[in-house]
Amino acid sequence: MDRVPRSESCDEGHDTQPRQVLALVQVTLRCLVSCHGGSCHTEETRFHPYNSMQNLQSCAAGLALLFCSAAVAAECVKPLAPCPDSPNCVATNDPLPDRRFPPLALKAGPDDWSNVMAAVQAFDRVEIVEEKAGYVHATITSMVFRFVDDLEVTLCEDGKQLAVRSSSRTGRWDLGVNLRRVETLVDRLRAYNMVR
Asked: SS3 string of 19-75?
């Protein structure tokens, strides 16, 4: 499944919790003030010191995404934990486009939560950490190095959407593991005819 493109507008909507908004504020502020040795940059963008228009446009885009994120935050059974300050995370509530996955529109009703649990428990080396109606937090341990990843799924928008987060606890790069895990979860939910 394709992730949300960079040009996503406010009316398309995505779930953002306060800590994710704070993360985007920090990125935008770094964009505005972190100029060193003739260049200004953040992890997401690089700027030339003499191209002030490009700098202003990039920072304005960050601020626009910030206010958009705050305006359309969805109500969920339990808010997803924020992604760490590293690329090894994929979540429907992340403010950064490279880590954001589109929310999943439910075809089935919230009463079919058992299918979500079955899809989560189908992963190898999975352990359920917390479960309640409309929310599950599981850990998945890698086979060789025993790295532990977190997987969260929660109902949002009065049971009309599913939000999901898959994140590594250690390291910085995940070689696409978290994205593939979310895509696998979505494929299983589609097999249950739960999501579009």
From this structure: HHHHHHHHHHHHHHHCEECCEEECCCCEECCCCHHHHHHHHHHHHHHHHHHHHCCCC
Q: Where are the alpha helices (DSSP H) in the chain?
A: 18-33, 52-71, 113-121, 177-191
pTM more than 0.70: no
* 55-59 contacts at long range (C-beta below 8 A, 24 or more positions apart): 55/31, 58/31, 59/28, 59/31, 59/32
What angle, 0 to 180 degrees and rounded to 10, lies between the N-to-C axes of helices 18-33 and 52-71? 170
First to last CA, the chain: 11
Fold of 89-191: TATA-Binding Protein (3.30.310)
Which residue, 46, 63, 42, is CA-closest to 54? Answer: 46
State pLDDT tens for residues 158-180.
889 999 999 999 888 888 899 99
Cα–chain-centroid distance for residue 56? 26
Give the pairing type, strands 161-168 and 46-47: unpaired
**Where in the chain are the domains?**
10-71, 89-191
pLDDT classification of 153: cutoffs 50, 70, 90: very high
